[in-house]
Each structure stands twice: as C-alpha cells, then as structure tokens.
C-alpha cells in the first residue's frame, strides 16, 4: 500500500514539472506564432555553404573529365 502512495506522489511531482514547463513556454512566447510553421515547408531552403569537413570542390573532378583521363 505504501508503494501506491509513493507512485501517486511521484506522478503528481512529474505532473507539476510538466505544468511548470508549459507555463514557462507560454511566458517565453513559444506558442505565439502558429501560422509560420504551416507555410515554412512551401519555401525553398537556402543552399548550405561548403565547410572544411570534406574535400573542397577544387580537388573534385567532373565525371566527363575523369572518363577522359582513364581513356588516355
């Protein structure tokens, strides 16, 4: 029986945490703009710039140029 009281207390505590998070989100304006996310998918994304993570485009060869080198 004491386990049930413990579980009820834990669930009330967790519910209060979620309630506080909800009020914090409302206070900081998380739910103000409901229109923009629905139309965001209609716009094209900007092309990401190359970073230093991989080889640069200068070192890559195009497919026709690579085939010509293998034929010679």
Task: Reconstruct the topology from this structure.
Layout: H1 2-27, H2 36-39, H3 63-71
Uncertain spans, ≥5 residues at pLDDT below 50? none
Average pLDDT reading: 78
Following the backbone from N to C, one meets helices and strands in this order, namely: HHH
Overall 3D form: elongated
State the main characteristics.
72 residues, mainly alpha, 3 helices
Question: How does this model look, in words?
Answer:
The model has no long low-confidence stretch (mean pLDDT 78). The protein is an all-alpha fold and 72 residues long. It has a domain of 27 residues. It has three helices and no strands.
Brief overview:
The protein is mainly alpha-helical. It has 3 helices and no strands.
């Amino acid at each position: 029986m004491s386990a049930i009281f413990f579980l009820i207390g834990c669930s009330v505590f967790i519910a209060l945490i979620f309630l506080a998070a909800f009020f914090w989100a409302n206070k900081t304006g998380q739910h103000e703009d409901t229109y923009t996310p629905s139309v965001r998918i209609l716009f094209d994304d900007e092309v990401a710039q190359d970073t230093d993570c991989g080889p640069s485009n200068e070192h890559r060869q195009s497919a026709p140029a690579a085939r010509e080198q293998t034929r010679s």
